[in-house]
Specification:
Layout (H helix, E strand, L loop, with lengths): L1 E5 L5 E4 L3 E5 L17 E9 L4 E7 L3 E8 L1 E6 L4 E5 L2 E6 L4 E6 L7 E8 L9 E6 L10 E6 L7 E2 L4 E7 L5 E4 L5 E9 L2 E3 L2 E3 L4 E5 L3 E6 L3 E9 L2
Parallel strand pairs: 13-14
Antiparallel strand pairs: 1-20, 2-3, 3-4, 4-11, 5-10, 6-9, 6-11, 7-8, 7-10, 9-12, 13-15, 15-22, 16-21, 17-20, 17-22, 18-19, 18-21
């Protein structure tokens, strides 16, 4: 098993006043030639948005974009006609495909919004743009991996145009759980939202990430009560 550890303090950061962000992979003003993603997982941004502020309408194409609010609300509008607000406990998927414009704002006048945004390369270019959102499974149930995003035509719920799976879990701090990869040759990026976990002999603290590869199975051993995100993707 190979583990590539990315410590919290090694992420790229930016502070625009209304937006404070940490970037696991190269993005915008942060560039590290050794941190251009993990396989087909291209972006993992950890964003804090001031009350009433946000991202004005901007274009995307040929990317699967997943947004996960950690606290507060995020208002979404796009050129497909979707107008929605995603809240803590929900998740959003937007397949940019052949091209789409969208905006993202914190609609609350008195509290910030924190959210994770993930970008994954799709299987093909020029696919039909699409939008989905849903309430997450009951992540309060401890020590269970909840699959929240899967490939097209492999189940109900949120899906993307890629052989990729996203799972989340709340770990109680006293039980090891195992992850079985879906496809041989894939890798899994593990991101610790809260707490700390061991993968083999590698300790991941809060907001650390690690790319796990060259294995078909591995275990997570929480050292404290923890929340984790797992993103399984093709490595090439």
């Amino acid at each position: 098993m190979k583990i590539e550890l990315h410590k919290n303090n090694s992420r790229g950061t930016a502070d625009y006043g209304w937006l404070k962000t940490s970037r696991t992979f190269s993005f915008d003003n942060y560039y590290d030639p050794n941190r251009n993603g993990f396989g087909l997982f291209r972006v993992l941004n950890d964003d804090w948005v001031e009350a009433g502020a946000g991202f004005p309408s901007h274009p995307h194409r040929d990317m699967e974009i997943i947004s996960i609010p950690l606290s507060g609300d995020l208002e979404h509008k796009d050129s497909m006609g979707n107008v929605a607000t995603i809240k803590e406990g929900e998740i959003q998927v937007m397949s940019a495909g052949s091209g789409v414009f969208h905006s993202e704002y914190n609609p609350n006048p008195d509290k910030p919004t924190e959210f994770l945004q993930l970008w994954i390369y799709p299987r093909d270019r020029g696919l039909t743009p699409r939008y989905q959102q849903m309430t997450l499974p009951d992540l309060a149930v401890p020590d269970v991996l909840h699959e929240v995003v899967h490939p097209q035509n492999t189940g109900e719920g949120l899906w993307i145009y890629q052989q990729a799976w996203i799972s989340m879990a709340t770990l109680s701090g006293n039980k090891e759980i195992a992850y079985e990869l879906h496809n041989k040759g894939n890798g899994v990026y593990v991101f610790v939202i809260e707490g700390s976990v061991l993968i083999g002999d590698t300790l991941l603290a809060e907001r650390d990430g690690a790319g796990v590869s060259a294995t078909n199975r591995f275990s997570l051993l929480p050292k404290t009560s923890s929340r984790v995100l797992l993103v399984e993707v093709p490595l090439q």
